[in-house]
Amino acid sequence: MSITLDQAEKAIQAAKAKAADINTLMNIAIVDAGANLIAFAHMDNAWLGSIDIAQRKARTARYFDMPTGELGKLSQPGGSLYNIEHSNGGLITFPGGLPIKDASGTVIGAIGVSGSTVENDHTVAQAGVDALA
Amino acid sequence: MSITLDQAEKAIQAAKAKAADINTLMNIAIVDAGANLIAFAHMDNAWLGSIDIAQRKARTARYFDMPTGELGKLSQPGGSLYNIEHSNGGLITFPGGLPIKDASGTVIGAIGVSGSTVENDHTVAQAGVDALA
Amino acid sequence: MSITLDQAEKAIQAAKAKAADINTLMNIAIVDAGANLIAFAHMDNAWLGSIDIAQRKARTARYFDMPTGELGKLSQPGGSLYNIEHSNGGLITFPGGLPIKDASGTVIGAIGVSGSTVENDHTVAQAGVDALA
Amino acid sequence: MSITLDQAEKAIQAAKAKAADINTLMNIAIVDAGANLIAFAHMDNAWLGSIDIAQRKARTARYFDMPTGELGKLSQPGGSLYNIEHSNGGLITFPGGLPIKDASGTVIGAIGVSGSTVENDHTVAQAGVDALA
């Protein structure tokens, strides 16, 4: 099973609402279980460089079925996955990417958010995930 | 001036409705005046390969401010723009990409649609453009 | 649903047997429903350049859920999909790639074969598909 | 001399068996003496992002005829090969890639494994190497 467009749009709407709540401008990407782009939204005047980063965060979260920030803890100098970012055409391993699971716990896709601090990016991504819970 | 996310989402909704009307499954991409991705939607079970093509059509339409199919007439063997597809990281020059203009005729972005015949792709892209007229 | 590794290996074994039958040396790739590589085999002394082509054929067949050769008929000069090969990081649109479907007709992956004439490539790919029928 | 497909498949089967033994889901790649992909297997539900990493580990191990983890010790900040990962289209320098040698000690290819901790990846890669000893 993979995320549907209806689900993806619902997650994006929730993420946009949270972004507005906390006074940020975000880029929000949703990928399916195959790591393919399903839906995307760039809020007006959000960073242009985050269009790409949001998509990479979503793919990274699905590639390894974990929050991107968890991977980033392991990819630091001296860490067990140092420089893993060089794989898969370029990963992003700081927070803002989260897997999306169905009720049974199976990963059906992922969300990636970029546009503010990584704490804010993570908060907005979590709002997207929560909208489908 | 560039297309807003509200406008982009309105165009995508109109394109999705037209795609459903003509019984097709489409990928729909909107780029802004800077050729950056603003919004995207992959209808459930639409071709995966068209995720990339829809985005390339949108960028191509904005890069040259003309319908992608017009460019394709010039890029054929012996044509004046033969193999222009090699530029800009890869263009798509068959129909399905259209510039989006404001009331004054200024290009504010573009739409790219892929998932069916090029005639259907063009029809759905036009529906997106018309929604903002 | 996506193809399993067991199924992929069964398809590769059948393809290898057919390749030997017709006295060819092939590269054989299997991708899943998300177009991700599941299994691959390079027969000894097969063309090195076909390692990449086999994988691109498999992805292309899944991207558009059709035999690669069908796409190639449309991508010729003057055709409706001229130069579609520039999308998705590079497509291969001559024969040798085929979708793989389950009993209900849902595409669960694809096979790509390269190493000989396109007729032989297609024959060997078909043997892989048939092994799962 | 280079590894044969029969040898590569034998190494993959041994690696898969070891992966199952230690309760992990792995991606396993074998390259030949020319660093070209010979065989690959993605175990069902293994990380999608490791499809690429397993192949990079195998290539990296053959590029420098040493375990990937040895290279990773030298590529750290301040190290003699700092950021060598930028070369060759992207290297992976944490454990899980090992050269494969023939009886005379000549490198005939390499194995790359990705899907779990780097310790587990290395253990499974070693099982592949041992199967050919």
UniProtKB/TrEMBL annotation, chains A, B, C, D:
<dbReference type="InterPro" id="IPR038084">
    <property type="entry name" value="PduO/GlcC-like_sf"/>
</dbReference>
<protein>
    <submittedName>
        <fullName>Uncharacterized protein GlcG (DUF336 family)</fullName>
    </submittedName>
</protein>
<dbReference type="Pfam" id="PF03928">
    <property type="entry name" value="HbpS-like"/>
</dbReference>
<dbReference type="InterPro" id="IPR052517">
    <property type="entry name" value="GlcG_carb_metab_protein"/>
</dbReference>
<dbReference type="InterPro" id="IPR005624">
    <property type="entry name" value="PduO/GlcC-like"/>
</dbReference>
